[in-house]
Amino acid sequence: MKLTPRLAGRMALPIAAIGAIGFAVVTIQQPEPAVGAPAIAPPSPSASMTSSVAAVGLVEPSSEAIDVATELSGVVRDVMVKPGQRVRRGDAMFRLDARALEAQTASARASLNVALVEARDAAARLKLFDNITDPRAVSADERDRARFNAERAEASAALARAQLRQLETDLARLTVRAPISGEVLKVNVRPGEFAQAGLATEALIVMGATEALHVRVQIDEEDMARVAEGAVAEGALRGDATRKVALTFVRFEPQARPKQNLNGGAERVDTRVVEAIYAFDPAALPAYVGQQMDVFVAARPVIGAGAAKSAQR
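Structure (tokenized):
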């Protein structure tokens, strides 16, 4: 095809544009990505702890968290506590509607009073017959009948007393009280709601003893051979690795279980752990129940080059 001046003019602009794009691609370079320091310093053990096992812990009350339930079902009328409030054992926490039981209790109390009057009357009649010494005045049949009536009246009074006691017990059970002295952690019940007795999907009230806090530490089963009972430990709350607190060994939970809090990385979903309970003073490190803690437990150093984990993370 013959290249005419007119055709050359039409092709000049696209060729120039392609050349400009190629020049830009070649000359413009992408900036190197900046590598900055992490926003939060990763946790690490103190220099004095030469060999340790790293684990994850969960802060909990020293009594463990108690899910307070109701023994009877009913509509809630009053809630007497709020989150953060400290209560003593036996303090009222919430109360169910008691009007029906109060009416039954009043009726049972009146029935008991009637039964007691009848029992006293039957006992007095029997005593009168017993004081008569002349066998001609009172027949043996009349005396036996009076004794039977006195015994029946006494049994009726005992039954009425038992029924009243049962109603009074049920009436007292409508007021749910603190099982221990401690702190109210969560309130999931409000006046007007129906409180179901038995197992519930969500606890009505959660409480626990928080004067001292515990940390439930999950130690991988492959590390347990290096951790001795009573081993010293230290921990830092997630998000603040600079503030550490000394942990005091309390006990090992005697049953290994599947790991619940996986850290990611190379850990397998079938990892099993042994839970160690440690205590610490919340005055030394204020913490909320349920917070996670990075824990380092003093351990024997790894022996052998083929060990799965380093002695210090």
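Confidence is low (pLDDT under 50) at residues 305-313. The helical segments are 5-27, 99-131, 140-173.
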